[in-house]
Specification:
single chain; 4 strands
């Protein structure tokens, strides 16, 4: 077990929200936090608008791929964050599970890249706060 803090971000397909959270956390904390992403029912590929929304921030997740939760991931984290209300992870002894009920602009009729930027920005704020919690004060 490593002394480095670890987090697993989970959404249903592992193609959008969890991948954005993972990319944002890796970018913000460099190598100070072990970061995994997974899906409860992984889809075939990443959401291209999710990838594009992070490229706008100079964060490249294009080489990532969707994946299920694995025992190796669970052995390396102390926190699981589910994104949205549809991703449900069964309790794991010794691992805290939190849910981020993320913004869903499509419920307000906002679609396309405008929607994805709003989702990204919501997740970015949450990731920044989590990074501060996990590491203390993060960069300036």
């Amino acid at each position: 077990m490593t002394s480095k803090p670890g987090v697993l971000f989970v959404c249903v397909k592992n193609g959008g929200k969890s991948q954005m959270a993972g990319g944002l956390m890796r970018h913000l904390t460099k190598d100070a936090v072990t970061v995994y992403t997974a899906g409860t029912k992984p889809g075939p590929s990443l959401n291209s608008q999710s990838v594009e929304s992070l490229v706008e921030l100079e964060i490249d997740i294009g080489a990532e791929h969707t994946k299920p939760i694995t025992p190796d991931m669970l052995g390396d984290v102390s926190l699981i964050v589910t994104l949205g209300s549809e991703a449900v992870v069964d309790p794991v002894p010794g691992i805290e599970i939190r849910n981020w009920d993320t913004d869903e602009p499509s419920e307000r009729g906002i679609e396309g890249m405008e929607r994805m930027r709003l989702v990204r920005d919501d997740i970015s704020i949450r990731v920044s706060l989590l990074a501060q919690e996990m590491l203390g004060s993060v960069g300036s």
